[in-house]
Amino acid sequence: MRKRGVSPLLVLLCFATAAAASDTVKLSVDLRSAPQHILHATTRIPAVPGPMTLMYPKWLPGEHGPTGPIKDVAGIFVKANGKDIGWTRDPKDMFAFVVTVPAGATEIEASLDLLIPTNTEGFSSGASATAKLAVLSWNQVVLYPARAKGDAITYEASLTLPPGWNFGTSLAVKSAGPTVVVFEPVSLTTLVDSPVLAGEFLRTVVLDERPGRRVVLDMAADAKDDLAIPDELLDGYKRLVKEADALFGARHFGTYHFLLTLSDKVSHFGLEHHQSSDDRVRERSLVEADQKQMMLGLLPHEYVHSWNGKFRRPADLMPDDFAAPIDSSLLWVYEGLTQYLGWVLTARSGLRTIAENLDDLAISAAELDARGGRTWRPLEDTATAAQLLYETDDAWGAWRRRVDFYDEGTLIWLEADVTIRRLTKGTRSLDDFCKRFLGGGKGLPEVKIYGFSDVVADLNAVAPYDWGAFLTERIKRRDGGAPLGGIEGGGWRLTYDDTCSPLQKSSESVKEIVDVRYSIGLLLDKAGTVVDVIPDSNAWTSGVAPGMKLIAVNGRRYSKHVLRDAIHATKETPAAVKLLLENDDFFREVPVEVRGGERYPLLARKAEGDDVIGAILAPLAETPYNIDPKSKKR
Ligand SMILES: [Zn+2]
């Protein structure tokens, strides 16, 4: 275990020393050809004569995998004293380039092009630029000397923007001309942690205006009208900032930037940074109801990461550089607790109603409860194998399992919250654990590593209990269904109804899927292709599998309405629904027994017990807003 906590004072001292030294690396990036899906970058690195190895970042913080887009690097030239000195790739490391620095040279100049894909799959290495905007992830255009520690090497970065484009970033600006911006020198770790969002249509709104504590929302879109954020959504994000302050009782950043990209032509995901987040959603997410509903949980999740994931980080997710593999087995804390707190803050800030948040929980609880794959793969292995599972799609998800540590983490941390409240008769909660585990600090970026025993110790300090056994049992078990104790102990139960929740309708509309997993066992895409089958469901045992295409239902050409009508007809009388399936070049009609009609997940109040989940989701900040104003209860 390597201790890498650095005090802000130490950061400042290192910064002053390094910035003054002549070994600062100069990186210049030209974004003017971003609309052409190619970036040009030049790095000037201090050097001494002799062999030298240049590295391209491989393991990316927050992506939890070796996702540096080395295959999309082209146009590599290395010069010294103005002459091309060539390079050779290390045959055993695709991310390493060996050069020989000639006599008399004091630096080398390495230039490269980044080829930006148009494929919207994946994370930051996916599509990141359109004709109107670009997200610059510095790790994609930077080289660094082998064995240099990310915190110990200083970079001064500059950026040339297309005419008329503006930008947002958490980096401090040293000087800004009409098109060229020079940023204050920072460590390589901070540079990689500070992406830039740039675009022709860029709008900035301030969520917290207090000097030294600003929280800013930078939005770039493919069209100006996409940026018309409604007042109630803006107010929700302002309340998110207040609710996070109330939850954690401390911040670990000076200024924070949400970098929100609105485009259908970029990859869609969120990536956390210490003082910003790279949040990419569909183009109409601010202005179209279904798209908006699907993005509401994203910014709360990424904001929580500034505390959980950046300030506090598992020791083995904290390598010295970008070349060392990680151990991601504690992602059920890093991502799982973040997912839970993001879900809590989404309701506390009024971004979603409590009813919507309960529907959200019902959808993920039902999905996890039907994960047949939990019989062979414990939750902990979904975290350990995250670098594999992030790369998989929905096919066979119920049997293979996916990155379940997010949503199953929500269930586990909800149960921990409910348990603390029960043990302490409502006087303490997971909020107290959050203040202890994620609060404190000096108010500026720093990293405090932790291990499993630290999590257990802080839980015990809030409410004495056998937390080690509680957590171990839930992350290692391979039997039963999803851990639903938090829902049950919170006064609710997972059940099924024949009506889709509005949230599921939005989900199906935006993702273009048909989800009838809890009746006939199938998840389909818009073309009727089977995406997933619930293990041991009647469809599974009848031989239906991902990749087969549903052509007809009970003799009529497939549409989602024809399928749902056929399932609905089994409500009173069980029946075999006949599925005509195309399997490669062959067709086969498969009868699948269905009983009980349509089934969609929802949470129902239990007949007895307090509504603990309702109490958890009530706002903490001084002014309550998402409860009935006539009610005295909070
Ligand atoms: Zn996350």
List keywords for this structure.
nine-stranded mixed sheet, 634 residues, disordered C terminus, five-stranded mixed sheet, binds zinc ion, disordered N terminus, alpha+beta
What small ligands are held by the chains?
Answer: zinc ion
The oligomeric state is single chain
What structural category do the secondary elements indicate?
alpha+beta
How many strands, what sense, and barrel or not for the largest sheet? 9 strands, mixed
Low-confidence stretches: 1-21, 626-634
Look at the structure and give the mean pLDDT: 94
Portion of residues in helices? 25-40%
Query: What Rg is obtained from the alpha carbons, in whole angstroms?
Result: 26 Å
Strand content: 25-35%
- What is the number of E strands? 32
Please state the overall shape, judged from the principal axes of the Cα atoms.
globular
- Termini, distance in Å? 43 Å
Tally of DSSP helical segments? 20
